[in-house]
Amino acid sequence: MKIAYIIFDGITFLDLIGFYDPVSRLKSMGYFKDLEWEFCARKKMAADHFGLRMEATRIDEPLNEFDAIVIPGGYGTRQLIQDQEFLKWIQTASSARYKISICTGSLILGAAGFLQGRRATTHFAEYSTLRRYCGQVIEERIVEDGEIITAGAVSSGIDLGLFLCEKWCGPEAAATIRQRMDYRG
Question: Full-prediction pTM beyond 0.90?
């Protein structure tokens, strides 16, 4: 499986890293040896609103070769839902089996057209914004609707990562990774 982690200016890195940590352990702990990932962006560097920066490993390339895309949230999502070029780029992931978001990353999934008629969640302050894009806003931590999997609020990234560890490799893998992370949430 090949994952595209989407990064952008205004990202909340906790969304990304909270998810990335447990999922990357699937590979490092031998549960999912064929797991690969790239950090994808429209430009070389992405920064959060405090100035923390991350360099993309793939720049402005189509996302159609990935099995999953993961879109974190952050203040930048509010601008990106209006950015038609960015949304067209996200739409190149239409063939990805899984479309995953953390926090307000679901607004991008919605603006790109992936949430039509679907159930989804987001940060509690953005439920009304998400309603424009999906069939039903669910006020829960993790919402799975087929290949669309969304998580609400910032700290849900870890929970979502562990959820997918279990989905992809089973409860034993998720429990062992949770224990290694000493995560008690």
Answer: yes
Alpha helices in 13-104 (DSSP H): 13-28, 77-80, 84-91
How does residue 139 score in pLDDT terms, banded at 50, 70 and 90? very high
pLDDT (mean) for 17-23: 98
Task: Answer whether residue 154 shows pLDDT above 90.
Answer: no
Both tokens of 15, joined, read: 């969304």
Task: Locate the domains of the chain by residue range.
Answer: 2-181
Tokens of 89: 């780029």
Contact 144, 156 (CB under 8 A): no
Query: Could you tell me if 133 and 110 are in contact, meaning their C-beta atoms sit under 8 angstroms apart?
Result: yes
- Homologous superfamily, domain 2-181: Class I glutamine amidotransferase (GATase) domain (3.40.50.880)
Kindly state the average pLDDT of the residues 109-119. 98
- Reading the block at residue 90, the tokens are 């996200």
163 backbone φψ class: left, alpha, beta (φ>0; ψ -120 to 50): alpha
